[in-house]
Amino acid sequence: MDNKVLARVAGREITSQYISEVISRYPAQQQAMIDNEQGRRNILEQAIAFELMYELGKEKGMDTSAEYVEQVNKIAKELLAQIVMKKTLDEVTVLDEEVLKYYNENQEAFKEPANVTAKHILIDSEELAKEIKEKIALNQLTFEEAAAKYSSCPSKEQGGNLGSFSKGMMVPEFEEVAFVLPIGEISEPVKTQFGYHLIKVVDKKEDSIKGFEEVKDEALKQLLGQRQEQKYLDLIKELKNKYTVEIL
């Protein structure tokens, strides 16, 4: 896109590229809302106002005031510290073989917890739950048909399907049965705070360790973060010995 000059204030140009840079500083969701003709126009007006205020400040000599100098020095100090920190952390590198070694030594961190895929029928009566189970056993209707007909859970629209879940995602009474129930079997009525459930387990997966290729980027991020943190701590320790630090 051409870097078009959109306005001039006291001889200084405000360009389309500048407007794009301002938009890029916003969170992604907000960018989509303001990156349009009206949004860019509003930002241009803000940029013009900013330049006008800058000119007024210079005219009044406020750029030489003690308050201005103090604020500039403060910002300059923060900016320099940030640049040094970024440069220090950017120097930290991790080799592919180091990432693999980290993965092999920390496989517990990449564990996929056991999970169950199940369907259920939720009703408010234990007697009705038993009747429904008997009808399913007699092949008078399928579990899915029973869920659609009797269940009070919105999952009835999907034949009672709850999808997959690991421990801690369901109420304890439900989980205790679901994780021991054989695949394909239907449980006895299970009472929870929501009512009575008939549970049918569709699939089970035991604890497993994710493969290296699957978690390579995550392992790299973890290892790099650890090394950057150590680099930071080592640098601070070195600088404390180099420069005077007094904690009063």
Topology of this protein?
Layout (H helix, E strand, L loop, with lengths): L4 E5 L2 E4 H9 L3 H7 L2 H23 L6 H25 L5 H10 L5 E2 L2 E9 L2 H12 L5 H8 L10 E6 L5 H7 L11 E3 L2 E11 L2 E2 L2 H31 L6
Antiparallel strand pairs: 1-2, 3-8, 4-5, 4-7, 6-7
Question: What does this 3D model show about the protein?
Answer:
The protein is of the alpha+beta class and 248 residues long. Helix 1 (16-24) packs across helix 3, helix 4 (66-90) packs across helix 9 and helix 5 crosses helix 9 (212-242). It starts with a strand and ends in a 6-residue tail after the last helix. A 4-stranded antiparallel beta sheet has the order 5-4-7-6, sandwiched between helices. Strands 1-2 form a two-stranded antiparallel sheet. It has a two-stranded antiparallel ribbon with strand order 3-8. The chain contains 9 helices and 8 strands. Strand 1 and strand 2 form a beta hairpin.
Oligomer: single chain
Report the average pLDDT across residues.
94
**What is the percent of helical residues?**
40-55%
Which spans of ≥5 residues are poorly predicted at pLDDT below 50? none
How many runs of DSSP E, i.e. beta strands? 8
The Rg value, from CA coordinates, equals 32 Å
Structural classification = alpha+beta
Give me the strand/helix succession.
EEHHHHHEEHHEHEEEH
Main sheet strand line-up: 5-4-7-6
What is the straight-line distance between the termini? 56 Å
How much of the sequence lies in strands comes to 15-25%
The largest sheet, given as strand count, sense and whether it forms a barrel, is: 4 strands, antiparallel
The shape, in one word, is elongated
Number of DSSP helical runs: 9
